[in-house]
Amino acid sequence: MPGRGEVRPEKIARVKALRESVLARPVTALVGIRGVPAAALQSMRRELRARGHPITVATNSALAHALGSAAEERPALRPLLEQLDDQTALLTAEGNPFAIFDEFARTRSPTPARGGEVAPQDILVPAGTTSFKPGPIVGELQHAGFPAAIEKGKVVLKKDTTIVRAGQTISREVAGLLTRMDIRPLEVGLAVRGLVEGTTFYPPSVLAVDLAALRSDLGRAHARAVGLAVELAIPTPASLPGIVGRAHRRALGLAVAVGYPTKETIEPLFVQAMKEAAAVGRAVSG
Fold first, then answer.
1. What CA–CA distance (Å, rounded) separates 91 from 30?
2. H, E, C per residue of 101-147
């Protein structure tokens, strides 16, 4: 049995296993799990494991020792040590950092406030008619800072109102009223606090990219670039079919215009001759 001040062997083994896991894969991330119910967390972990992105829940002390030791070989891991607070899990994986971040972002969903939480962003309550019936609720809303009034027998909020600013604490009074209005200002789920791929550290602000919008933008940019290359006759694998097609159409049009017969122009030349003959016939009979 270890004496006072001695580290238990199982803790040493745990830190060593975490360190080896970090060094064995190119992607390492710290994931916040605060507020995720135990059953939901287990379900998320199973789904992530099935997709090749397992997360390991450990104490911050064990994670700090493992990351600190691994950072001696991979210095890019050091910024992750600054993200070690609250309830944390460790991800070690392979793959695209942006796709991994997007995968974790999809685990997050809106949840009601209970009171006492810090607002992650401004909580905006829109103007309009509420579902409340006229009565004492109007006073409750006004006392909590909502611009409530009665109009045509209905309780309305007269203007858009930021009821809680980002970084402020949500009071129980405000939380209760928001819940009754079905406004869910918080999110519950797994949050990537920081990610390292190889020698590069990515903060969440860099990883938070709308991949669908980015793919759409890239698709439009590619189409426009190919169109410009075709217009300027710049041959590339993407533009060459368009350049050849346009040249063929122009050559065909020129051959028809000068009456040059080929297998492709004989039919439009014949149609054109018939139209001209009909026009001459009408002119003569007239």
1. 6
2. HHHHHCCCEEECCCCCCECCCCEEECCEECCCCCCCHHHHHHHHCCC
Instruction: Give the tens place of pLDDT for each residue, 135-186.
Output: 999 999 999 999 999 998 899 999 999 999 998 999 999 999 999 999 999 8
Architecture of domain 9-108+189-209: 2-Layer Sandwich (3.30)
Strands 186-188 and 154-157: unpaired
pTM higher than 0.70: no
Could you identify the residue written with the tokens 């791929």? 197
pLDDT band of residue 1 (cuts 50, 70, 90) is very low
Of the CATH numbers 3.40.120.10, 2.60.40.60, 3.80.10.10, 3.90.105.20, which one belongs to the domain with range 123-185? 3.90.105.20
Of 109, 93, 285, give the one whose Cα is nearest residue 196: 93
Instruction: Encode pLDDT of 203-249 as tens digits.
Output: 988 888 777 777 888 889 988 998 888 888 898 898 889 889 888 88
Nearest to 59 by CA among 82, 83, 79, 86: 86
